[in-house]
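Reopening this ticket.

The earlier resolution said the output was attached, but the attachment link was broken on my side. Pasting everything inline this time so it's all in one place.
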Amino acid sequence: MTSAPLIGLCGRRKLGSQIVGQPESLHDIEVELFYRDYARGIIEAGGFAVNLPLDLDPADAVARCDGILLSGGADIDPARYGHEPETDMFPPEVARDDFELALMDAAATRGTPVLGICRGLQIINVHGGGTLHQHVEPHARFDVVPDTEAHEVAMIADSTLGGLYGDRRSVNSLHHQAVADVASDYIVTARSDDGTVEGLEHKELPIISVQWHPEMMSTRSGDPVFGWLVEAALRFRDG
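Inline output:
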C-alpha cells in the first residue's frame, strides 16, 4: 500500500490575546493556526497534512515535504514588490512573508509541487517578481457565508486548471487584493469576467494557484485541485 504523501500546510501566528476565551496570563503567548478546511481538502484527496510552524527552517521544511500548500491570510507587505501601502485592511505579517517566500525559494529549486490559494496565489506571483492590486472592492465578499458562489471563472484551454475544472466554474470570493503585473515565469490560466486573475501556473514547474477558496466551498471533498496536489506530490516523491 502506497503511503500518503506529506503535504506541508502554511498557517499564521497570532497572540493569545487575539483568541477569544484565552486567560489573560496567556495573552502574550504566540499561537500557530490555520483554517482546518485546508487540511480537510488535503486529507480527502489522500494526502497527509502537517502544519509548518514559522520557526522551522524553510529549506528544511521543503526538503521533508512532498508538496506544499500556501493558504490564505493577511496581505503581503507591498514593499516586497516595491510599492507603498494603500490599505491597512489586513495588515501584513512580516514573519509569515519571510517564511513563505523562503519556502518558495526552496520549492522552486527542488521542484516540489506547490498549490497556492488566495494569499498563496499572491505570494507565488510576488515571489516570481509580479505585483498586486492592493484593493479590488467588488471581490471582497465578506458579507456572505464563505461557500457562497459569488461569480464565475473562465479557465484557459490546455491549461492544468482547464483540465481540472473544464471551461468555467462558479466560485466564492474572499479576497480584496489581486494580481497586477504577472510574474514572468507564470501564465494566467483563469480569469473572472471582469478580467481579475483567478489562476496562475508556472511555465515549467509543478506550481499552480487559484484566487478563490476551494477548501471553503461545498464541493471541497471532491475538488480536483487538492487531487492535483496529492498526485503531483506522489509523482515527485516516487519519481
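Reporter confirms the inline version is readable. The radius of gyration is 17 Å. The chain has one domain: 6-238.
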